[in-house]
């Protein structure tokens, strides 16, 4: 695992790494003294600490020695997301990738996805693990409103929109599964490290 440590104020260290989820899992299983929060992103892990317990130099030396571990939740099954593949961009993405719509759907449902990090909106999980053939750019002109439950792709990621919002991702379909529900404990269905599978269903 390659790491690069960057200062991030008096109470945090930003770690650039090739295995964000593996590092997060290792630090979660054996938390270093003074670490109070881990915040994953696409290529970085923000490690917040209590300066009364440790400091950036001491923590940084420890972080360089940490070995990543399997990030899959122990004993946890996959979250299966049923999807009606009738999205507005389905035909365009198929044409751009040189696939038939049926092949595009087959490749998307064959992916073994993992929630890498959350951002943009509460419950918006960036899911890695898609077929490289499905890595497409965002729309040149974002939509002003994408319905909650929209299943979309952009770059190397897949996602389910947790709420209605603007967005530029390519829409492949829709699901009735609420990925963010404030009445649920916890409200986020797809926290980082969660394994996800998409399943095609009829409307």
Task: Characterise the protein shown here.
The chain is α+β, with helices and mostly antiparallel strands. It has helices at residues 20-29, 56-65, 90-97, 101-110, and strands at 3-7, 12-17, 35-40, 44-49, 79-83, 113-118, 125-128, 143-146, 150-154, 157-160, 165-167, 170-174, 195-200. It is built from four helices and 13 strands. It starts with a strand and ends with a strand. The longest helix has 10 residues, at 20-29. The chain folds into two domains: 3-65, 2-Layer Sandwich (Gyrase A, domain 2); 79-200, Cyclophilin (Beta Barrel), CATH 2.40.100.
Broad CATH class of the largest domain:
Mainly Beta
CATH superfamily of the largest domain: Cyclophilin-like
Largest sheet: 4 strands, antiparallel
Shape, per Cα inertia axes: elongated
Query: How is the CATH topology of the largest domain named?
Result: Cyclophilin
So, CATH architecture of the largest domain?
Beta Barrel
- Main sheet: which strands, in order across? 1-2-4-3
Order of helices and strands: EEHEEHEHHEEEEEEEE
Query: Which percent range fits the helix content?
Result: 10-25%
How far apart the termini lie comes to 44 Å
Overall number of domains: 2
Secondary structural class: alpha+beta
> Beta fraction of the residues?
25-35%
How would you state the average pLDDT, rounded?
93
Write a brief structural summary.
With 203 residues, the protein is of the alpha+beta class. The protein has 4 helices and 13 strands.
């Amino acid at each position: 695992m390659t790491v690069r440590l960057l200062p991030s104020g008096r109470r945090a260290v930003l770690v650039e790494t090739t295995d964000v989820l593996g590092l997060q899992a290792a630090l979660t299983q054996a938390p270093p003294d003074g670490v109070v929060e881990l915040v994953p992103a696409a290529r970085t892990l923000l490690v917040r600490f209590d300066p009364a317990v440790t400091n950036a130099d001491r923590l940084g030396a420890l972080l360089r020695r940490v070995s990543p571990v399997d990030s899959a939740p122990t004993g946890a099954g996959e979250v299966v997301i049923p999807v009606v593949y009738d999205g507005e961009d389905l035909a365009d993405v198929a044409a751009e990738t040189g696939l038939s719509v049926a092949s595009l759907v087959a490749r998307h449902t064959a992916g073994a996805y993992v929630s890498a990090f959350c951002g943009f909106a509460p419950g918006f999980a960036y899911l890695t693990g898609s077929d490289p053939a499905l890595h497409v750019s965002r729309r040149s002109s974002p939509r002003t409103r994408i319905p909650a439950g929209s299943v979309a792709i952009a770059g190397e990621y897949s996602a389910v929109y947790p709420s209605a919002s603007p967005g530029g991702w390519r829409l492949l379909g829709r699901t009735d599964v609420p990925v963010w529900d404030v009445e649920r404990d916890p409200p986020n269905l797809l926290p980082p490290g969660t394994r996800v599978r998409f399943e095609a269903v009829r409307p």
